[in-house]
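Interim report, section 4.2 (structural modelling).
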Amino acid sequence: MEVRSGSSKAGHRLPLFGWLRGYRSEYFAGDVIAGAVVAVMLVPQAMAYAMLANLPPHVGLYASIIPPIAYALFASSRALAVGPVAIVSLMVASVAGTVAVPGTAEHLGAAVALALLSGVVLLVMGMVRLGFVTQFLSHPVLSGFITAAAILIGFSQLRHVLGVEGGGNNLPTMLWALAQSAADINPVTLLLAVGSVALLLLMQGPFKRLLTGLGLSAAIAGLMVKTAPLVLVVLASAAVALLGLDQRYGVSVVGAVPEGLPGIAMPAVDLPLWRELLWGAILIALVGFLESASVAKSLAAKDRERIDPDRELKGLGLANIGASFSGGYPVTGGISRSVVNYTAGARTPLAGVISALLIVLVLLFFTPWLAWLPHASLAAIILVAVVGLVDLHTPRRIWEYSRSEFLTLVTTGGVVLLVGVEAGIVAGVLLSLGLYLWRTSRPHMAVVGRVPGTEHYRNVERHEVKTDPRVLLVRVDENLYFPNTRYLEDRLQGLVWGQGGVEHVVLICSAVNFIDASALETLEELAEQFADSGVTLHLAEVKGPVMDGLVRAGLPEQLRGGQIFLSTHQAMETLGTRSRWVIPT
Amino acid sequence: MEVRSGSSKAGHRLPLFGWLRGYRSEYFAGDVIAGAVVAVMLVPQAMAYAMLANLPPHVGLYASIIPPIAYALFASSRALAVGPVAIVSLMVASVAGTVAVPGTAEHLGAAVALALLSGVVLLVMGMVRLGFVTQFLSHPVLSGFITAAAILIGFSQLRHVLGVEGGGNNLPTMLWALAQSAADINPVTLLLAVGSVALLLLMQGPFKRLLTGLGLSAAIAGLMVKTAPLVLVVLASAAVALLGLDQRYGVSVVGAVPEGLPGIAMPAVDLPLWRELLWGAILIALVGFLESASVAKSLAAKDRERIDPDRELKGLGLANIGASFSGGYPVTGGISRSVVNYTAGARTPLAGVISALLIVLVLLFFTPWLAWLPHASLAAIILVAVVGLVDLHTPRRIWEYSRSEFLTLVTTGGVVLLVGVEAGIVAGVLLSLGLYLWRTSRPHMAVVGRVPGTEHYRNVERHEVKTDPRVLLVRVDENLYFPNTRYLEDRLQGLVWGQGGVEHVVLICSAVNFIDASALETLEELAEQFADSGVTLHLAEVKGPVMDGLVRAGLPEQLRGGQIFLSTHQAMETLGTRSRWVIPT
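Predicted structure of the assembly:
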């Protein structure tokens, strides 16, 4: 892969506005080409995703103008392409649908408000440096969420494929709505949809092979194939217009698109509405940022660069606020477009600005031609796009590796399908954190004994070691925090009091990097309880910084005669008298 | 301290019903004495705490009958004394106050419903073995919560002390209400309150010293002094009756107490009310269980025993359901009463049953004498009791040990005082968990080098070691979970790409006990990204069980040529060529 000359020092992040200040003429070609290729992808995608959000398709185009330009101000990623994306569009449909009927002006107003609210949320998160919160979603949960959302998106488009009324925010309600309007299936619409899908698949597969067979590189062929959706838009619109499919057969089309650019205006202030939408806006912001940051990160890594999550938040925040001021709806960095942007040669966020300008041209000059664009073809574009989101590889791997994590994946996906996307992401977060807390609250602890002839001490259950029945050596393999102190206390009490004749118990802290205030108090209570029952608590192998803290807190004096040994061996030599073999069972 | 003969095998838990089956005649004396002493404490306390809950005082007595008996069925603690307690009573006042005006029949109905709901919550938690969730509250947060709640309780009683109307669920509203009724202060009530407090303090201090001076043991003297509140009740009632303080000076009194026992009846089913109260019931259940479990645990430890948290949950659940069926309100194990119960010689939960029977006697025969009991004296009892809850020692220690944990203590206490108890406990939980997630998401990582002449490798920032500029050795001192994989990734990328000339990076996993699915994927992505930039990722010192998992997941093949070494030294010998000194700065 070619090294990009002039890139900022390896390992450093793209400096703010640096891309503008450090602009070199050799970047221009790459940026223009990438900008054009992405615009070609963006026109059909933006319209299709706006339709997915139950909005007029041209709103997707509006949302592709200001946002990439606003994002470019803070961008810490070279090639992130900001605009409408599938999953966020699904969430917009779901959230806006709770306050307004799809297809109405109120619905659009709600979507605009969502853009404003989520933009503000993102901006605030960026300013307060909350970028790190998205790491609290485990990969299995994310995988389950995305796959289930993709399935939901697919089913949501069936109504456009069949030409019927649809509805519903989750699988049961969607299927119910489809079943109820089964009698109204429009065969012409269905035919159009199937033909659209066929065309897209043909171009992705056989046509691409044809191009490479003709001598084009795989990269160039890949980029040319990205024009497929736009080709479909043109052909489908032409077919509908020439054959009069909308008038004669009732094929549903986009209809008259307002000419020209959207006006720039502050969205209407409507506090009750905003309060209703706030929670949904927060979820949209989080999911959008998650998707965007992950693709920005992998692209940056290709150049040995890293992104700045807090700048990304601010950039996306401004992008969404910009969308709300220009009649758009919530946007974020899109995976497929950003990868194409990068592959096509984008060197700076100027590529995104160029895409935006090309969309402006479309709105100024080409909108009349969109009037005959059938919804069925837009649905086909969505269907083919989301197939790529369905991830069956990850679940298989996770099933092999960890059953409990597989369960979180399946549960998250299940909640998305059965209840809806917002419930799904919330369930996923709770599951991720719940499983994590459960695991870390039960630290691994091992009773150890001496490997004969050495100064090493190992787990009595795994090695042949010698122990002393009077001196119990217990190693804990985790930091001591409040979530695990009670477990620690319980296990130690069980070990010490459950075995007769124990006079000393040594807690080996070689793996302990941190002891918090709750654990400190637990240690003192244990020392006291043990002392009351004739057992002395000692510590061993306490790390330097931890020891400093313990001394500062006066723990050594609280140990009721217990000592703190530098090594386990030293403890054994000081306290132990007899020893016996322990053969692991 | 005398060894209790016949106690279950050291380290084992009190078997279910075992206390009944294994009952020995020599327990009876201790149980009866303890039961009587606790009843003596309980009569005034229960009435005072019911008043704190804005309920008629006799409701506290009702809540002291069935609960201890129901608890005894599941008890895993010998000496836990179940009944009304201060903090739970405060929470009942606060929660019930959101649905009904204090002092009305609806308010009492809400309190009864709360007992039912929290009882069911506790029972379900016990059945689903959710006892462990209470360990997710850090000690600093608990300390801040209890101290602030105690202060709030104190202020809530000022209206009884001053003889005015009061109100409010937090400090600002309480002070405001007091200020508004400042003109109505009743000097006789105030005098009575001051006198009551003086009597209690006199008995606790000088009188106790008198008793010990007369030759009684400190333990016996301590128990006798516990009768102080009951003595106050008798004297104060007599004073009010004889001097006609209620009629002549408007001193507020308990008034006519229904004679006899409460009826046993299922509480009215009122689903809308229950839905409103559910969240408060959950919080009351959690706080109640926390307090109860902590005192049960420390008492059990004195006998080298441990409690079973899930049985405790079921016992307390039944106790609260029993309270709701007998006109009572939410109860739990009380700290002071349980300690007294233990010290007075309780051997089994029969002591609690005996206390309950004595309360029955009071209700059957002594209620007419309670009519002249002034609220001011009950308030004095509460004030003196909660002073003991205020904990200034812990904050000082935590300030020394950890500023961030001190901040959680102060913040929790602040929220309790300024907003209210429920908000306070929720804030405390969020703070505890938030701080924990923050800490564990930034694991300690160290670049290490070789201690010359040895096979040991230590942190380059703390030791004089030798390193090889081509081979970067990084040790991570934490398990690899999803909350910290991005930090790990970020740090590693920064270290590898920030330093020129790195060809190999070895991740030393000696402290890693667990690698979850998200971390596994991160390692594979890192291996790929590094390989793309000419750096090979290796692992070293991977623990046995972890290695098994990695092999099962096929990670070794994903390392793009990286190896997994048994020791850091082996890695260095295989990969390193040159080495140079690094002097720590």
